[in-house]
Amino acid sequence: MTTLLSVEGVSKAFPGVKALDNVYLELRKGEVHVLLGENGAGKSTLMKILSGVYQADSGAIVYKGKPVQFKTATEALRAGIGIIYQELNLVPHLTVAQNIFIGKEPVKMGFTIDAARMNRDAVEILKRLNADIKPTALVKNIAVSKQQMVEVAKALSYNSDVLIMDEPTSALTEAEIEELFKVIKSLRAQGVGIIYISHRLEEIREIADRVTIFRDGQYVSTDDYGDLTLDEIVKRMVGREMAHKFPPKKHIPTDEVILEVRDVQRRGETEKASFTLHAGEILGVAGLMGAGRTELARAIFGADPKAGGEIFVNGARVTVDSPLDAIQAGIGYLSEDRKAYGLALNMRITDNITMAYLDEVSTRSGRILKHLEKGVSRRFVKSLDIKTPSISQVVKNLSGGNQQKVVIAKWLFRNARVLIFDEPTRGVDVGAKYAIYELMDGLAASGAGIIMISSELPEILGMSDRIMVMSQGRVAAIMNIEGATQEKILHHAAGLL
Ligand SMILES: Nc1ncnc2c1ncn2[C@@H]1O[C@H](COP(=O)(O)OP(=O)(O)OP(=O)(O)O)[C@@H](O)[C@H]1O
Ligand SMILES: [Mg+2]
Known about the structure:
- The chain folds into two domains: about 5-240, 3-Layer(aba) Sandwich (Rossmann fold), CATH 3.40.50; about 255-495, 3-Layer(aba) Sandwich (Rossmann fold).
- The chain contains 16 helices and 22 strands.
- It has helices spanning about 45-50, 75-80, 95-100, 115-130, 145-155, 175-190, 230-240, 295-300, 325-330, 340, 350-355, 370-385, 400-415, 430-445, 455-465, 485-495; strands spanning about 5-15, 15-30, 30-35, 60-65, 65, 80-85, 105-110, 110-115, 160-165, 195, 210-215, 220-225, 255-265, 275-280, 280-285, 310-315, 315-320, 330-335, 420, 450-455, 465-470, 475-480.
- A hairpin with a 2-residue loop joins strand 1 (about 5-15) and strand 2 (about 15-30).
- It starts with a strand and ends with a helix.
- The structure holds adenosine-5'-triphosphate and magnesium ion.
């Protein structure tokens, strides 16, 4: 087995944070090397060093036998190291093909871009991915999952020797994940070395050759995947035994209906949906990707237009034509795409937490009271265990999972009683997942009602009181947790009943 790339004792600090402290990683030709660690463990930071975005403070990177230090991402790419970033990195107003070939567009007659050839080449690459995406579509007009496939296509277009994938499946459908895995396997067979980062511990079973684990910026271990059990992996990641996946249930659903949705329909996307949500209840919403769960949630929240229907909060009819209406009615929505809807990435943690409820930290004349703002932020950073050197940290500098916690803090602060959590644990590590479950349980115990959209059936079964299954835009079933099984849910989700 030839070593392609090795990381030898690399360290990297940011102001107030030691992101990497003397870490090691060895990538061989033709292997899928999975890198695991909790949120903030330093995974993405190392990948950004390997791909020239950041420079290491100390330590060495040896690539194909020679020490290297890439100064820019382009330099790394040209040397054969491709990366798919955790945050999508596409230009929204350019086409799919333009994004794939950005910076290396084929030219004709020396100076004009050969658009026809570019589109043809794009089709070729997308075909390898089995992705049904038009090369001429604007990236902003295609679904997040498709955008992620475009990222993969872009990385493939460089014929890289090393391909880094930082949570590539976080927005993909099951079918798309399968296609991606096929591509990964065929690249591996061609000798490409792949570094694969994911929080979905179940999925790596299919592709992992070796596993390296980091914890809090430090190197823990490297093993053949076959030599590890899932329990052992989790233990090494979090540094302690995790006996239970779900916290003991403290909340008890009451009879009080806090939300009633009557015949609400997302124009053109879903059929009429009716259901109730009780105080103290967690209503799990299951379904396959594309079943219309997010669309329905967004219609309820006023983020997408409704084609009729009524919404009642605490028994009173409310008009929700915009997210602002929803917020005022006491409905909070934690979006699955937190980058686009939940967070102001260039603002501080404090601004993000208080922005939906500035009144609470301002004088009557609208002046923000810094000490209140800070107090609130400190409280949430502590209670949600947000890993950050300070509450003034700009949100984009937080690790992916910690950004998720900031969005949750924002809605908690807003005292929303009806909370819609759309894939709340996506991209969140096992330890933080448990913390989010505890939090949801606690919120419900204190009288909130939670709608939890999730694609992970164990999570649906572990947390819900009732389960609503959606299939092809309609509510296919609503069932009590007693007697619910994975099989039953899948049956409804597939539209078989
Ligand atoms: N540009 C930056 N400025 C300041 N701090 C940063 C920056 N980038 C990362 N950090 C910090 O470095 C630490 C490691 O972050 P990193 O993004 O590498 O974690 P990660 O393992 O990828 O986590 P996740 O699984 O949540 O994506 C975190 O504490 C993060 O807040
Ligand atoms: Mg990361």
